[in-house]
Amino acid sequence: MASDGSDEFKLVSPSISNEGRLPRQYTDEGQGAKKNISPPLEWYNLPQGTKTLAIVVEDLDASDSDGPVVPVTHWVVINIPPTVKGLPEGFSGKEEEKGGDYAKIKEGNNDWKQPGWRGPRLPTHGHKFQFKLYALDDELHLGNKVTKEKMLEAKEGHVLGEASFIAIY
Question: What's the predicted TM-score (pTM) here?
Answer without folding.
Answer: 0.92
